Structure formats: structure tokens, C-alpha cells
Amino acid sequence: MPSEPVGHTSDGPGPADPASADHASVVRDLGVLRRAGIVRLRSLELPALAHAAALTGQPPSSAVEQLLRQAVARLDGGSLQEAAAYTLGLTPGTRDWPGADRRRRAAGVYGVSVERHRKYHEPMVLNQIAEQIVQLVQLTGQVPPDEPAPGTHRALLARAAGRTVPVTLHIHPVDLLRDVDVIVSPANTYFALPEAYKSSVSASLRRAGARRGLTGDLVEDGIRDELREWAARQHTSGRPVLPGTVAATGSGALAEQGVRRIYHAAVAVPRAGTNDYDVLPADVTRAVARALTTLAEERDRFDPPLRSVCLPLVGSGRGGLSYQQSLHALWAAVEAELARGADWDLHLIVRRAAPADLITRTLTGDGAVGIRPDSARSATSPPGVLEQGNETDPPTR
């Protein structure tokens, strides 16, 4: 089969609004990338994708590829996500496949001929990826600042429960955390962890907690396995738990980084018949309160006792809560514990400067400014994100 031509879109119109992504322009760039393949990404002119990646705060060195992976991850399983990953060469082992081979494999996902896939299914797949990219930009809701906030850690003095409390704010991926006893990981009410290649907090922790052999083969998926054992002991396998439920597991390979426990906080309620989730601020507060109670219960079972806990912006990103909503919901639980005399070593984690600046302003008393539109709607990401994200980036599930 002859090779397919590679096109460029430098003469195509850019988005009218510098803080938005134009759907048609994104689809056009995706078509160029589908033909060329991701191995030629750096040599392609993809203005709409580059613009969208900048708006969502992706790392410059891998901006467009990370944006594509987040967008495909938001399709949340099934034939559409599988076909999308083959179409763009994001499935492991397909990165260098010719466009014709990737198209043939994507057609096989739907069980149709290559020609029918080219005419009907492939345009639908590219449109759906573009839609997720546009939504990621809308969720971010701002043009990135000219100067990113320096540093990956901030030492804050927060006012809470009538006293000043030290809080360490981390601005980096969650799997880089070290020497924090407990990480709270957002989860859906089925405690079904996302695939490890996704970008949410729970996916990142699952990936970092797994053990692999010398050739990269998965040897032990420790966090997932322990969570399944927890569900089996509670007789909830395959059934949802109440929002706010917390399941405590070990940290797998993260123990080598000084992380000792993962508290899976069920906050995302799947919406029947869709890939969407609903997250309520009250459920975030309830889950964080339960996580802190679990920390108190487990504290003296370990040597040395558990003392430090790290919280992402639970429910932001794919959960649909704004950064500000998530922060206020989780801090309500933290403040209640502090009022009862708790003396935990508190950590918060995000991946980008925008939510970090919001946290700094809010907790240090310089005012609270919303970074995203303040609406508790459900989205189809990260869920992001998080970050990672959750804040997630989109992760965060």
C-alpha cells in the first residue's frame, strides 16, 4: 500500500480567541499527525495543537504528546479509546507504525473494512479527540502566565482553627513525592483504578507503586492488588461504596521513596450510561475527614508512627470541581481536625503554578481567587490531572 502524504497546516486559521482552542483547527492538525505519526511530531507544523498544549500548561519538552495522551485518556475505555490510541500511535509498540498500519488496526477495533473506517469511523475518532482537547482548554480557563512560579516547593503558614499551621505545598507530579507517610488518592465509588498509563493522581500512584523486571515487564501491581483485596474483605467487589469511603492500602514500590500508605478516597460517582462522573464538595469534605480519621487510627501501628499526609485537590480536573471548590471542601475537613488538636505534618500537591498560587493566596490570607469557572459540573477527563488531575491533571480518578 503506498505511503500517505504528510501535510502541514501553517496556512490554516488560528483560533480567534487566544485563550481558547478552535475545534476545526485541532481536527485539521490531528489529521496531519495521524498521517505522519507521532515519531515525526517535532518536524510537523501543528499550530492549533501547540496552542492548546500551551493553554493547558503542558511541559514544553513534550507538550503536544502529553496533551494527546490526556485527551485520549478522557475517552475512558472501550472501542473509541482503543481506536484513538491506535490512530495516533499512542498504544505501546505502535509509535513508529506507518499510518496505513495504524488505520488498519483501528478498523479492526470496530470490525469494519479499512475503507469504511477511513470514511466513517476515523473522522468520528478524530473529532472526539479534538472535543476532549477543547474541553481540557476550557477546564484550564486561562492563558498561562508569562513567568511560571519558581520552585517546586513552598513553605506556607496557614491560618486555621485559630492558630498558624505550617503547610508544605508541592508543585510537581505526585509520583515524585518522597518521605511523606500517607498520600490521599481520589477514587471512584467502585474503587476501580484507572489504567497506569493515564495521567490522574490514582493512575500515577498505581504506576509508581508497581514493580517491574529488568526488561520492563510488570512483576507486581501492588497498589491495585491490595485495593482489590480490601474490596473483597468488605464484600464490595464490583459494587459501589458510599461517597466518602476510604480504603487504606500499602504503597507498593513507593515505599522505597518513603511513602508508607495510600488512602483511596471514594468521591467520584459514575453517571449511568456515560463516561462522566459527579463529585460533590460535601463528599470531598467527608472523604478527607475520613482519611484523617484513618490516619489517627493507624498512626501508632507503624514504627515510627505515621505523621505526615499529602492531599491533592480532590475532585478537581475530571471531577468537575474548580480548584477553589476543591480546596475549600478539603480544607474544611482539615480545619475541623486541627480544631480538635491534630498535629499532622500537612502537605498539599498540585502540578502547575495556577492552582499553587490559588492555594498560597487562600491559605495565607491574601484573598481567594478562582482559577477556573466556579461550577461543580462533571467533565470527561483526569481528571486530569490532576493533577494529576485529579487536578488533573487531568487524572485526577
Walk me through what this model shows.
By secondary structure, this protein is an alpha/beta fold. It is built from 11 helices and 10 strands. The strands form 2 sheets. Strands 1, 2, 3, 6, 7, 8, 9 and 10 form an 8-stranded mixed beta sheet that branches. A two-stranded antiparallel sheet has the order 4-5. Helix 4 packs antiparallel against helix 5 and helix 4 packs across helix 6. The protein is globular and about 65 Å long. The relative contact order is 0.13. The N terminus and C terminus are likely disordered.
Count of DSSP H/I helices: 11
What integer value in Å does the Rg equal?
21 Å
Mean pLDDT metric: 82
Helix content: 25-40%
- Reading the helices and strands in chain order gives HHHHHHEEEHEEHEEEHEHEH
- The parts where pLDDT drops under 50 for at least 5 residues are 1-19, 142-149, 367-397
User: Got a strand count?
Assistant: 10
Content-based structural category: alpha/beta
Q: Sheet bearing the most strands, described? A: 8 strands, mixed
Work out the strand percent: 5-15%
Q: What is the overall shape?
A: globular
Alpha carbon gap, first and last residue: 41 Å
Can you summarize this structure?
The chain has 397 residues and is of the alpha/beta class.
Please render the helix and strand layout as text:
Elements: H1 23-36, H2 47-55, H3 63-73, H4 78-88, H5 99-110, H6 114-140, E1 153-160, E2 163-171, E3 182-188, H7 201-209, E4 211-212, E5 218-220, H8 222-233, E6 246-249, E7 261-270, E8 277-278, H9 281-298, E9 308-312, H10 323-339, E10 345-350, H11 353-363
Parallel strand pairs: 2-10, 3-7, 3-9, 9-10
Antiparallel strand pairs: 1-2, 4-5, 6-7, 7-8
Helix pairs in contact: 1-2, 1-6, 2-3, 3-6, 4-5, 4-6, 5-6, 9-10
